[in-house]
Amino acid sequence: MMAFELLEPGSLKEAIALIDPDDPEVRPIAGGTALMLMMKAGVFRPRRLVSLRKLGEAFTRIAAASAGELTIGAMAPLSALEHSPVVARGAPVIVRTMRRLSNVRVRNVATVGGALAHADPHMDLPPVLIALGAAIAVAGPAGERTMPVEELFTGYYETALAKNELITQLRIPAQGEARAVYFKVTSGSADDWPSLGVAVALHAEGGTVKSARIVVSAATAKAMRLKAAEAALIGTSVDDKTLKKVADAAVDEADIIADLRGSAPYKRELLRVYAARAVRSAMQTSGGAH
User: Fold this and answer.
1) Which CATH class is domain 57-172?
2) What span, in angstroms and rounded, lies between the C-alpha atoms of 207 and 205?
3) How many CB atoms lie within 10 A of CB 208?
4) pLDDT digits (tens, 9 = 90+) for 95-107
5) Confidence at residue 290, expressed as pLDDT on a 0 to 100 scale
């Protein structure tokens, strides 16, 4: 690993000022779990890293508003989400997802903002957040803006963030009686990178689906909603015929990619099976984003 300079600004404004958008050898570092692996492999050779670890408690805080909205600081480690009673009440699907995300050593170090900004399509958290309708706050030299997590990912390891913008906060709207699940399929251990991830969040009344979000990841270049599959589900009472339509629509809509974790035809069949399975599971859970 090459020598590099490590800076530790004490404020967000200072951190942004230290990031040169025109110099690819100067980058921010949050938890560093992915960045360090890239540096060890020689894929990334930074001249300077701007650490975000000393920005203050505001960037690690997890809180719930009276209306039920969750706010999570971008520097909160993933293990904080896993063990947070606030998250467990407001979006328990996140807690369950964390338990199978990599291992406890990674979860203790990796941060929410870093995981999102890295844009690895195999990450478990992005599809869940998209299904929950989450958004992020982003800060840069021009000020702060808000962006749905759904719009953050633009391609394989690519985001809509400017080079000198930082994610500061994750915001998850109140879920009410939403029913949410996340299924991951791995070719190794249960906490391994998935060959496929499917997240579903829906509202149902009297057995009829009123709204739904279906998100696929790992089998695609980025986590993405499957809006045709959602349309096939909304307004229906879920039965085998409906589930087949949802699964077929999901497979037709998703742009499946091959990688070390499976061929495109293999992942396509996984999606056909697990899109239906996830919808059925969501319908069988109780309300409250379980």
Assistant:
1) alpha beta
2) 5
3) 12
4) 999 999 988 999 9
5) 55
User: By three-state DSSP, how is residue 122 classified?
Assistant: coil
At 9, list the tokens.
């600004």
Q: What is the pLDDT of residue 43?
A: 87
- Residue 141's contacts (CB-CB under 8 Å, 6 or more residues apart) are 16, 17, 164
CB atoms within 10 A of CB 133: 18
**Contact at 8 Å (CB) between 68 and 101?**
no
Domain 179-284 sits in which CATH superfamily?
Answer: CO dehydrogenase flavoprotein, C-terminal domain (3.30.390.50)
- 3-state class (DSSP) for residue 6: strand
Give phi and psi for 183, each to the nearest 5. Answer: -115, 130
pLDDT of residue 198: 98
Phi, psi torsion values for 107, nearest 5 degrees: -65, -30
Is the domain spanning 5-51 CATH 3.30.1330.60? The answer is: no
